[in-house]
Amino acid sequence: MAVAADRGAYPQAVVDEFKRLAEECSICYQCGTCTSSCPSGRELYRGPRRLVRLILAGEIEAVLKSDDLWRCTECGTCTEVCRMDIDVASVLSRLRKLEREHGGAISCPERTAADVAAVRLRKQPRIDNMRFGVAMMAKGHFPKDKVGAAETGMKIAKQMLPLGRKRPAGVAGPAPEGTVTLPFYAGCALPQDHELHRLVHEVAAGFGVRLDETADAGCCGHPSRGTVDTQFSSAERVYTACPACDASLAETGVEAVPLWDALTERAGRSSTIDLRAATRSFVPYVGCLADRDAALAALGDAAEQAGVTMEVDYPTLHNGCCGALGGMYRGATKASARLLELAAEKHAPVVTTCVLCRDNLHSAARELKIDVPVHFWPEYFRAAEHAPEERTDD
Ligand code: SF4
Ligand code: SF4
After folding, report:
1. Close Cβ partners of 178 (under 8 Å, ≥ 6 residues apart)
2. Rounded to the nearest 10 degrees, what angle do helices 259-269 and 292-306 cross at?
3. Please, which pLDDT band fits residue 316 given cuts at 50, 70 and 90?
4. What local confidence, expressed as pLDDT, does residue 392 receive?
5. What share of the chain has pLDDT > 90, as a percent?
6. I want to staple 117 with a disulfide (CB 3.0 to 4.6 A). Which of 87, 130, 224, 287 is the partner?
């Protein structure tokens, strides 16, 4: 590793770790595939390729003071695509740890969000959006989408009123014959929107699925960016509503499956359930943490079953950053702007498999004044009883 002028400013432990990282990256030939494949690549100031180059150059300060470390969403794509098999995502994760232990100069919203989440999760099992927002504002980070923040605040306040919509405990009454029960992990965000939470249970029931939800299940840990371990464990496969939860639970060995994929697959196998969609076409969005190709394939399957068109453009558009790098809506991104423009051109809504991405794309549409509806999967797809084929032989 080259020796940078700032070497003296850091403890030996930091210099040694940098030497190890440089050793691991020494075969990098700067092809740039990592950055071009990164869902947040167009939003990052340097991106993974240039960060690797700075590591090789021994530029400790430049690396440890780069916001990119925290704007990276840990999706792992850079590692998957690196032709030299460098585990770039892990290099960035170790740099975040190093920055946390020896840096501290970074004050970007994502870094602060990770700290706020870590502090909260050491005290509480889950992230409370309202308290999280207040804590971020106390640190000088105000919501970019003030209308959206006000709407969320109003909704949560209404839910707290005596007559407010109570958190669903699942679908009431005995389960109809043939119903299957699936263990469901709702994560932190969904249960804070009682209406949407109830909808997920009701839509699943339409597919003959009863969701067995662990009430008050703890946070998957993702918001703390690896500082606080997941507060949820399960020996059995669980069905989820958020790609971030999938990624974090998978890291702890929990088999997590997107609920929508399971419902789509169930409708596909069933002779009594049809899958219906709210419009004749839609533009898919699966979020940067999802297994993009698998998530797009499941949405494509749902579209085919429902007899509607899934409008797609280049693949990374459908998982490019939605504007919340690492936890806080930061504004419309190049990817979200292009995605919303595509939906406007096609006169079609955006359908997403992640509730947080839905909210961020809502905010981006408001910010860009693009009149496009953004739906969460259960707001767009429904199960319907199979209509027997019309008899034509009379
Ligand atoms: S993909 Fe791998 S080899 Fe190419 S620039 Fe990125 S880290 Fe280097
Ligand atoms: S882990 Fe994902 S977001 Fe982070 S640099 Fe790699 S590709 Fe980009």
Report:
1. 208
2. 40
3. confident
4. 54
5. 52
6. 224
C-alpha torsion 243→244→247→253, nearest 10 = -110
pLDDT of residue 205: 95
Q: Return the residue whose CA atom lies nearest to atom 6 of ligand 1.
A: 34
Domain extents in the chain: 2-102, 180-385
Distance from Cα 376 to the centre of ligand 1, integer Å: 35
CATH class of 2-102: mainly alpha
Angle at 350 between CA 347 and CA 355, to 5 degrees: 160
Give dist(CA 210, CA 225) in Å, integer: 32
Which residues pair with residue 309 across a beta bridge? 281
- In the reported structure, the alpha carbon of residue 81 is separated from the centroid of ligand 1 by a whole-number distance in angstroms of 8
As to burial, measured by CB atoms within 10 angstroms (0-12 exposed, 13-18 middle, 19+ buried), residue 305 is middle
Longest dimension (CA), the chain: 90
| CB distance 200 to 171 below 8 Å | no
Cα separation values, 360 from 222, 269, 327, Å: 17, 34, 10
- Assess whether pLDDT exceeds 80 at residue 169: no
Q: What is the pLDDT of residues 22-52, one digit of tens each?
A: 999 999 999 999 998 898 887 888 899 999 9
**Entry pTM:** 0.88
